[in-house]
Predict the structure.
Amino acid sequence: MHIHALPAFTDNLIWMIEDADCLWWVDPGDASVVIAAAAQTSARPTGLWLTHHHADHCAGVAELLARWPQLQIIGPNDARMPWVQQKVGDGDRVEISAHSSMLVIATPGHTRSHHAYLLTNALQDHLFCGDALFSAGCGRLFEGDGADLLLSMRRLRSLHDATLVYAAHEYTAANLAFARHLLPEDAAIAAYSDFVTSRRKCDQWTIPSSIVREKSINVFFRWDDPAIYHALCDRHHDLADTACTILAQLRQDKDAFRA
Ligand SMILES: [Zn+2]
């Protein structure tokens, strides 16, 4: 199995999974990018996985379906995503080949029906998390609150450490700038931030990441770390010490942060 990163728009990544002789795409926001990638392989276009309804994740669906009517279109049960044929929910598992399957994980917060998909096979787990989780960050809370974010982060943080994390945007450097501003003494964040800066200077991706890496450098995976609470309390003196409040405040501070 091969997983290819297809850059789209300014900072989106469409993920293409080539498994056996099948091609699957996650969040095909731009049909032309998908069509160009399909032309590079003899594998057969098989289906689309959609994490949520935003246009930069779905805008290519209609054109791709017109071109390849056999495509399976799998996603949340949400009226804003009329193209979804196979509506899936939390805990559902869909076979994608003889050796691999996708587990659906509900990840509300960015949107209320947002899904992440965990591709599992004998060798490695791969998490396609759309805008729920980014490397060193998470998506904005457009339709959810701190409780939704906690539910989603808890689910994702509990995955196996070695799971590779395929977010839908390359936002790592900006996320680390916020993390460094919040926790200037954190050695892991400082070191990784320097590494990411050097990679991005050479136009190299920082995704996929991994669950174990995110546990150290993603402040949204550290809601129960006292260092995060104390750093937030320096700015918000009466902040309640609950996981939901901490995550909601982190997200609000990130929204307001300008490097
Ligand atoms: Zn989005």
Observations:
- The pocket of zinc ion is lined by residues 52, 54, 110, 131, 139 (CB under 6 Å).
- The longest strand covers residues 12-19.
